[in-house]
Amino acid sequence: MTAATPPPRLGLRENAPQFALLVAVNALVGGMVGQEQTVLPLLARDVFGITGYTMVLSYVAVFGVTKAISNWFAGTLSDRFGRKPVLLAGWLVAVPVPLMLIWAPDWGWVVAANALLGVSQGLTWSTTVVMKIDLVGPRQRGLAMGLNEAAGYGAVAVSSLLAGYLASEYGLRPAPFLLGIAYTALALIITGIFVRETHGHARAEAAQLAPATSRPRQDADLTHRRIWFLASIREPALASASAAGLVNNLNFGLSWGLFPLLFATRDLSTAQIALLFALYPGVWGIGQLFTGALSDRIGRKHLVTGGMALQAIALIIIGAGSGLGAWATGTILLGLGTAMVYPTLLAVVGDVAHPAWRARAVGVYRVWRDLGYAVGAVIGGIVADLLSLQAALWVAAAISAVVAAIVAGRMYETLSTQHRNGASAT
């Protein structure tokens, strides 16, 4: 920075216009997922004649793997080339997805479309997370992540409802996927013309933090391998966040493929199935408006522990239920538990990681988190095929309870460390 060019100002209020644009962009990212969630399991059953749960969930597994891999590249590329080019590239990858779903002659096309969607989601969602963390600085990190994730998963809920309505009125294809065409066009316009680069904000934060630290300067210069090791195994808060994120998305991936089929066992209409499914991301999305800010006040750890435990309870209720009332109760609780966890885990990573390698740390966390889609799809599909849909939910509940105990025992409270320049990761 030169004397004539003051460093960017950090803070939500100071960067409100750009922050609002990025919230809108992330809503469109979520909408790309929401257009599929009610429709694809029914498309597999009614159009392509697929009955095996493992086969139905293949598109979720592929989505999770490609999204997980692209999360890492989103972090490394945005550190090297800047945030905006990566965000724009992610939207370009999404362009053929709705067209492939509309014209798919067989299930392989659907799986391929979701491979592209996973790449797009990894690049776009990861980058909007990093850009918002860049803008707000350390003071309102939980609030920023709450707003980001609320926009994304609120849009998942709204798009699920809208896609379900379009499917019930006009058929499973092409009407629901016209939403995706509109989302990609709007996102490319907003990103290409109005979104600005935020990498300079991260550099400004690093420069402000550096004089205050008593740790060696190499804190800011960790290798890729070291960051992987810290975020996956060594650093207690980062590794706990990665484990909790994986299981959280295990539950989401399992619900994505199995909930519509479970709800259809009671001869519910497509619109009723869409409503039940939308309750989960809807409560999740709205709840994050409060839980992200709450974590800035009371801390991160207890929200994560309580949220994973609540998810376990919710999955038991859904598995044991057999009608609209029980399923609605379970999906609402599942959404609430997820809202407690989702923005808080991102805030944990932002608390601990140095600004110089924060994007890569977010990338590693999101690799593990989004592998949960694939793990949930595989475990859920195998258990459902061998035993039952309900048994798959009970297995997921047990895994969630175990991770809640791990977080309670290993994760430390990170809120008090958010000004330490990532020193605890060395």
Characterise the protein shown here:
This protein has 426 residues and is an all-alpha fold. The protein has a single domain, classed as MFS general substrate transporter like domains (Growth Hormone, Chain: A, Up-down Bundle). The protein contains 17 helices and no strands. The protein is globular and about 60 Å long. Mean pLDDT is 86; it is low at 211-218 and 417-426. InterPro entries: MFS (IPR011701), MFS_dom (IPR020846), MFS_trans_sf (IPR036259), MFS_Transporters (IPR050171), Sugar_transporter_CS (IPR005829). Residues 15-415 form the Major facilitator superfamily (MFS) profile domain.
Shape: globular
Uncertain regions spanning at least 5 consecutive residues: 211-218, 417-426
Helix content: over 70%
Quote the beta fraction. under 5%
Give the CATH class. Mainly Alpha
CATH architecture: Up-down Bundle
**Annotated CATH topology:** Growth Hormone, Chain: A
